[in-house]
Automatic annotation (TrEMBL):
Assigned EC number: 3.3.2.10
Keyword terms: Hydrolase
Catalytic reactions of this protein: (24S)-24,25-epoxycucurbitadienol + H2O = (24R)-24,25-dihydroxycucurbitadienol; an epoxide + H2O = an ethanediol
The protein's annotated pathway: Secondary metabolite biosynthesis; terpenoid biosynthesis
Record family assignment: Belongs to the AB hydrolase superfamily. Epoxide hydrolase family.
Protein name (database record): soluble epoxide hydrolase
Keyword Ligase: no
Hydrolase recorded as keyword: yes
Segment forming the signal sequence: none
Top EC class of this enzyme: hydrolase
Residue ranges occupied by any AB hydrolase-1 domain in the UniProt entry: 93-201
A GO MF term: epoxide hydrolase activity
Amino acid sequence: MRLIKGIANFRRLYANSIDLNTKSYLSTTKRAFCRPSEYAKVVNTTITCSPFYCSNNLGSRSHSSRPEMEGIEHRVIKANGINMHVAEKGKGPVILFLHGFPELWYTWRNQITAFASLGYRALAPDLRGFGETEAPDDASTYTSLHVVGDLIALLDVVAADQDQVFVVGHDWGALIAWWLCMFRPDRVKALVNMSVAFNPRNPNMKPLEGLRALYGDDYYICRFQEPGVIEAEFREMGYERVLKGFLTYRDPCPLLIPKGKYFGQPDTPISLPSWFSEEDCKYYLSQYEKKGFTGGLNYYRNINLNWQLTAPWTGSKIKVPVKFIVGDQDLTYNAPGIKDYLHKGGLKKNVPLLEEVVVMEGVAHFLHEEKPDEVNKHIHDFFNKF
């Protein structure tokens, strides 16, 4: 039974590049106050704003006209052999924000401005395969070792003056943050993780096979495995509907996506909550129409490979100070066995420096967007101790 619960907990996982022929991108050349509907082109040493090729109705509204976007700067750097886009603002101790699927740096827009105003330097990259960061073609280059390698290389450039940084993760970003703390605890001062709790490696069961046995072939992680299949279905359904479906998902039940039947009927509009606007959706859409979903899906396609690669860390514990936050309507919180694991000492056993588990009432998966002020206070109260 313990084995089955451990595998069940794993269900919470969600869990064309810029060509730089110069080293000048390592300078402090940046862009600021660009529209959400614009992207960075690197031409020699200059980063300029240009419209996305896709049509949108954002008009002339700029970052500076939206409080949560004001003053956010952007640059592309070389990190671990790929070109990474990072959004940043502020001066002071670094907070590294790690997004999930199908999120981008943009999911942290409210946190970036808030923590910059509190005396921190907020950094939010597009992870490998997402947004304006390079997406290698080889699916096997999206493992835990590759992605943590990206982050260490990124910090070596953008936070070279700080031996340790604060980290905040959500969804896949939370899982990556656990790996970062497990592989390189020397680089992390403290961690706030959301939605995806640390689940220790089970040496006796490959995770994908366990998930398929528990939830069937229509379980979303299982459906994501075969390259090209789900991408074709997403194109047929339309990227806008897919993004709205994922980014506003509130059902605490297991996420099943049978062919042609997920996120309601294709002709039924998806209502947006107050915290996620049509303008927000258009930013995501502009990014995914350029690159597609393959980069993000490749994280799921490495679940078993990650299990193999992390064999040396079997039994390892997370030994940095941690605060964990989850919504009571989040599908991750309602996974079999997870509530007992969080509240009866399981997580504390594997994360001995865990200081607090916060369950936010009436809040679903995208808690940092749904309740940004409350989440920001939780993060600030914790980091302010260090």
